[in-house]
Amino acid sequence: MLLKFGYQDFLDDRRFKNTTETNIRNYKTLLGEFVDYCIENEVVNVEDITYSHVRQHLLECQERGNKAGTINTNSLVENESIYFEVIGIIM
Q1: Average pLDDT of 3-31?
Q2: pLDDT at 63
Q3: Is there a contact between 52 and 39 (Cβ–Cβ < 8 Å)?
Q4: What percent of the chain has pLDDT over 70?
Q5: C-alpha to C-alpha distances, 65 to 41, 61, 68, nearest whole angstrom
Q6: Is the pLDDT assigned to residue 27 strictly greater than 50?
Q7: CA dist., res. 76 & res. 43, Å (int)
Q8: For residues 69 and 58, is the Cβ–Cβ distance under 8 A?
Q9: In angstroms, rounded to a whole number, what is the distance separating the alpha carbons of residues 66 and 43?
């Protein structure tokens, strides 16, 4: 599945499950940056995302001091679990 469609499917699924608009905005910020990162690194299919892609993106966010790359946490491990939860849902 193309990453951009998986991203949209995930957001639609969250809306269907009555996720708050605040959480939807947080997902858009968190995942939108990751989708952009993947596309910049020529990863366009969800199935091609690896642990390394997630880890490298989060490390780059951390190096930039980018708090927008997190959802209510500064923990890299917790952020990784959010990404993998999402990837699992859209695969």
Answers
A1: 88
A2: 83
A3: no
A4: 71
A5: 21, 6, 9
A6: yes
A7: 21
A8: yes
A9: 22
pTM, rounded to two decimals: 0.72
Residue 52 has pLDDT above 90, yes or no: no
Q: Report the C-alpha gap between 24 and 75 in whole angstroms.
A: 20
Q: How many other CB atoms sit within 10 Å of the CB of residue 34?
A: 25
Spell out the SS3 assignment of the chain.
CEHHHHHHHHHHHHHHCCCCHHHHHHHHHHHHHHHHHHHHCCCCEHHHCCHHHHHHHHHHHHHHCCHHHCCCCCCHHHHHHHHHHHHHHHC
Q: Which residue type occupies 68?
A: A
| Greatest pairwise CA separation for the chain in angstroms | 35
